[in-house]
Amino acid sequence: MNKNTLGIFGLLVAIFAITALLNDKFISAYNMQNLIKWSSLYAVMSIGVAFVIITGGIDLSIGSVVGLVAVVLAYQLKVKGIDPGQAIITTMCMSLLIGLIHGLLITKAKIQPFVVTLCGLLIYRSLGRWLTDNQSLGPVPLEDDKGYANIDTINSLDQIFSGKIAITDSFNLPTPALFLLALGIAAALFLNRTIWGRYLFALGNNEDGARYSGINTDNMKIIAYVICSFMAGIAGILFAFELDSVQPAQTGEFYELYAIAAAVLGGCSLRGGVGSILGVVIAAAVIRLIYNSINMLGISTHLEFGILGIVILLGVMADEFLKRYSAQRAAAKQKES
Amino acid sequence: MAEARTPLLEVRGLCKQFPGVRALHEVALELHQGEVLALIGENGAGKSTLMKILAGVQPADSGEYLIESEPVRFQNVRDAMAAGVALIHQELNLAANLDLAANIFLGREPNQFGFFQNKNIHNEAAKFLKRVGLDLPTDTLVGNLPIGKQQLVEIAKALSCDARVLIMDEPTSSLSQTETETLFEVVHDLRRQGISIIYISHRLGEVKELADRVTVFRDGENAGDLAKDEISHDAMVRLMVGRDLSEFYDRQIHSPGKVVLDVEQIRTPEHPNTEVSLKIHAGEIVGIAGLVGAGRTELLQTLFGVTPALGGTIRMNGELIRPQSPRDAIAAGMALAPEDRKLHGLVLPMTVRENASLASLKRDQNKGLLNFPAEEAVAEEAVEQLQIKTPHLEQVTRFLSGGNQQKIVLGKWLALTPQLLMLDEPTRGIDVGAKREIYRLMEKLAGEGMAILFVSSEMEEVLGMADRALVMHEGRIAGELARNELSEQAIMQLATGTPLAA
Amino acid sequence: MKTRFLIVIMCALSLAGWVGCSKKTDSEGDNDSSEARIAYVTNGVDPFWDLCAAGVRIAEKEFGIGCEVHMPTKGVVDQKRIMEGLLAKGIEGIAVSPVDAENQTPFLNEVAENSKLITQDADAPKSKRLVYIGTNNYKAGRALGKLVKEALPEGGEVIIFVGRLEQLNARQRRQGVIDELLDKPEQELSSVKFDAVDAKNLTAEGSKYTILDTRTDNFDKAKAKSNAEDAITKYENVKCMVGLFAYNPPACIDAIKEANKAGEIKVCGFDEQDALLQAIKDGNAHGTISQQPWEYGYESVKMLKNILDGKQPETSFHEVPFLVVTKDNIDEFWAKKKEMAELGKQD
Asked: Which of A28, A112, A304, B83 has its CA at 20 to 30 Å from residue A171's CA atom?
């Protein structure tokens, strides 16, 4: 764990401890279960955007991709009665395709990531609304609902994506946590143990330098955007099953900001080249923890965004301050040698 | 003549300590009015630190700093400017999108109630531009000027602040020969106007030409002074490195082997209407000379696939290749140590290990996974073979000296054992010791049969290192000089577009 | 490079094509707008509004007048944009549910000067709207309070969830619930006094009920659910959850089910989402107050038609009766809702 991740972990522990001290119900199994579940859902998205941010790019379309994937999934299940397994695969392919289009537009057509993904944000949102005529849909059937085929399969999917695994008598592990665990480990391995991960860091720090070293920077960037949209797609499926209801206009709205906030708080620099998956996951947990603590401590919900903003700002400031300090130390040390 | 008067600027017993580092120890320096004092020394000798103290960028820990015998203590650059001491930065600090007049008065715009008083600044600016020999409309945008002229603007800006002492930090490092000559004339002019100049340079030829006196630094201490008549290349090098360097360019001519690179009529995007053809043999060191903008860097970049060729053919070992990206060129056995190490050569925020292994990761991969032992081995070998001075492999390359950075770039390529090594300005901004090591390496690699193609703006380097020199002018190869034909005069003649007499 | 790019474009187009083909074909959004003389503007997107749209369609046929239905997604800004567009088109009458009644008053007055403006669902009493068609939300809130009392005859702790409290109808409902539970005297709709929005542990002497808190979620359903979960954690004695916006009760039901507290914590709600109706049927929720949304649409069109025909409304408040739905009448109600939903969806 590097210094930054350690710092954000400290923040997590601090907020955790304070809330636990002030409200003894906070550490109940039930609450921990919820906290883990929501943290996992948001962390999956944040991991995706971390890849893009490491390349020095940005993805503003995450929330809309979450929404569109959820909508298309529910639409296929509810309206079309498509085989659930096939529906899941279609939606995943769709999210991969979205990432591919982003990547190609950014690298080949040389349009700025901000613009490409901002347009994506608008397009996918309206696509979802148009597809469903803006009707709310639920992927999971009610008992009385005849619109569903394959009810049994859907129910078992629901168990996979938003189920619970009994660990002790009182504590059940929400399945999204397993998704996070698997995806997080895969992402961390990719970033730190494969040559492509190294390439991503190199090109994020100095794209020309990476290219001059023989790295196909365009392909690496495309991969980053594909990973980002794919993670958003997975999150979309998880959210759809978690909420049992998809509102085309609202599901996932502004989630890109949570994801970017988590990535930045978790140590990614928007200038690119820096980032750690563990840090981002912990930061996503910090953000969910703040929400939970606000409810637990009975702070007015209207203050949520304010508190969140201040914590992120302080976190990033502290990080910047530390970085500058250690850079000075290193520079001074270098003079010595 | 000057010695009789009190010095304009004087420092005595100056010390500067960084945490754990002694940057300057009991340093002394004198500067008289109308004098050009050259300050030389290897990188890390303390030149930059002293310069920063003189210009008020940072304070000294102890010691005296006198201007006209009055002790001064600058808190910031503004104080130094007020006392007439101005620093001309290596990286120019001009706003490209503003015109000449606006740049000269940037931050000091004459204003009334916050509104520009535009009329006067153009007349005023013209006055100062004239003093540095620039006869340009004052509404020219700085961004449209070549780098040499921008530098003169920078000097004009300093003069407009009533500077009496100009500190010039490697002013010629990005200038062509002609631009350098213009700058020298300006320096001579300024000296006649009574301005004193502290001139910092790695180019000993320039120092010899310009300086009235030389002060040499070594390891943060005074290593010696040379009076005008004592200034010689050998004397300076001896003081800088503290020992004799009998043979700086240590060349043995190898008999060239088979043709490695065969280029026919390629056209670069920069000069789409001129064709370039050349051949490089194994074991040969070929230099490309010419003025800045002659298309030398562009040629290397086209060969390396950075800016793909518009036409013509490139053969490596007889095989036709069409490099569309550096990846293609590397696969064909090429390597390029680019001119701008910080921008193109290295990923500065990454470590020595990560940089040294960046190009060979793919070769050493284990089904996509990083091969950490192989990576470590590549980096260790580079450090050992090239004598890279770094505390450890995990050192971030940003904190290394220019010479060591260049060695890492070379190490990165040598791990791939390329057949053709291209070097663009291989020793720019590198101290004498490291320079010599890089020359030795080039010699050794050529001896092992590698073909080496290098671009250099330093006359001495081309004369000293090349088996053969290609001189470029406006995108084409104006002429080729064999080793026995190489002379400064011949190169300059071809570089400026005059054909050699038969 | 170019061919690869082309392939991707083709893929994108075919995706769009697939989406288009598989989409039901009879959906053409609004009625032919050229003949629409009046418009029905909602405050957001929700199945609730589709039910309203069903009433609009019935009334269109019955009274022979075209009506556009608009559902702004982005709150005040979007709603304003839509209404400005309608005015620009020269629409003759608008029935709107203002997102933020108080602060939109100047704009609503501007609309009222250029068109016949009535409000529905939520009122803007200070504006120059001709009439307000709606539920007496305070009364409905009290009725909801009575449902809570039925659900918890022994009394207990109650918590309220709502999207946001900027809306007058949300505040009136909430106050109705509070007043009923604390046995406060009935207030006049036009002059309801509100308890502070962040008031906690409201109770009164002699009342068996405590209103712990009111949590808002700004229409984020994930937030609505986590709010309910957090309440379960924080208040171990909470006995009843009251959801004031349509999606709140289902969120509460989900959270309770997952916490294995079904039956332990009662749910009383507003509106008629299927998940809530199912829960009422199963006994997992006690009951709900339905505003019979189709009546909103129907009455709005009828009222605008009358106004355009020169018949001015007699009062400034046209009350649409609400319906209390419990296990007793759930089947009948659900059948009616389905019928309306079908009709509204054809939109």
From this structure: A304
Residues C163 and C276 in one domain: yes
Residue numbers in A near B329 (CB within 8 A):
214
Q: Please judge whether C236 and A301 are an interchain contact, meaning their C-beta atoms are less than 8 angstroms apart.
A: no
What CATH number should be reported for the domain holding residue A322? 1.10.3470
Last residue within a domain, chosen from B394, B417, B440: B417
User: Is C118 a domain residue?
Assistant: yes
Q: For A195, which of B18, B368, B389 is closest by C-beta distance?
A: B368
Q: Is B326's CB within 8 Å of A206's CB? A: no
The verdict on B193 and B251 lying in the same domain is no
Count of domains observed in chain C: 2
Give yes or no: residues C200 and C213 share one domain.
Answer: yes
Q: Residue B179 is part of which domain span?
A: 2-241
Q: How many CB atoms lie within 10 A of CB B97?
A: 10
Residue with tokens 């096939």: A86
Residue B339 located in a structural domain: no
Residue B213 pLDDT exceeds 60 = yes
* Nearest to A221, CA basis, from A92, A64, A93, A108: A108
Answer whether A126 touches C (CB < 8 Å). no
Asked if B358 reaches chain A (Cβ–Cβ under 8 Å), the answer is yes
Q: Is the same domain home to B318 and B427?
A: yes
* Interchain contact, B20 vs A206, CB within 8 Å: no
Specify the DSSP element, H or E, that contains B15. strand B9-18
Q: Which of residues 250-269 of A touch C (CB under 8 A)?
A: 250-251, 253
End-to-end Cα, chain C, rounded Å: 45
What are the pLDDT digits (tens) for C327-338?
Answer: 999 999 999 998
Could you tell me if C148 and C241 lie in one domain?
yes
Q: Which residues of chain A have pLDDT under 70?
A: 1, 141-149, 330-337
Q: How far apart are CA A168 and CA B345, in angstroms?
A: 56
- The interface residues of chain C toward chain A in range 60-79, judged by CB-CB distance below 8 A, are 71, 73
Residues in C closer than 8 angstroms to A298, CB to CB, are 200, 213, 234
**Least CA distance to C21: which residue of chain A?**
A131
Give the model confidence (pLDDT) of C169-212 as tens digits. 899 999 999 999 999 999 988 888 998 888 888 898 888 999 99
Same structural domain for residues C52 and C156?
no
Q: Does B382 touch chain A (CB under 8 A)?
A: no
Q: Which two tokens stand for residue C319?
A: 């009350």
Task: Report the neighbours of C using a cutoff of 3 or more CB pairs below 8 angstroms.
Answer: A
Q: Which of C1, C230, C278 lies closest to A108 in CB terms?
A: C1
In tens, the pLDDT along C117-145 reads 999 988 888 899 999 998 899 999 999 99
Check if A96 contacts C (Cβ < 8 Å): no
Mutate which: C73, C165, C212, C214, vs A, most A CBs within 10 A: C73
In the predicted model, what is the mean pLDDT of residues B127-133?
84
- Classify the complex by whether its ipTM is higher than 0.90, answering yes or no: no
Residues C93 and C207 in one domain: no
> Looking at the DSSP assignment, which residues form a beta bridge with residue B321?
B314
CATH number of the CATH domain containing C195: 3.40.50.2300
Domain hosting C167: range is 137-290
DSSP reduced 3-state for B320 = strand
What is the pLDDT at residue C197? 83
Buried b (16+ CB within 10 A) or exposed e, B357-396: bbbbbbebbeeeebbeebbeebbeebbeebebebeebebb
Q: Which residues of A touch B344 (CB under 8 A)?
A: 208-209, 212
B321 and B427 inside one domain: yes
Segment C278-292, tens digit of pLDDT: 999 999 999 999 999
- Cβ distance C249 to C222 under 8 Å? no
B195, B216, B241: which is the final residue of a domain?
B241
* B362 vs A contacts (CB less than 8 Å): 195, 214
d(CA A165, CA A171): 8
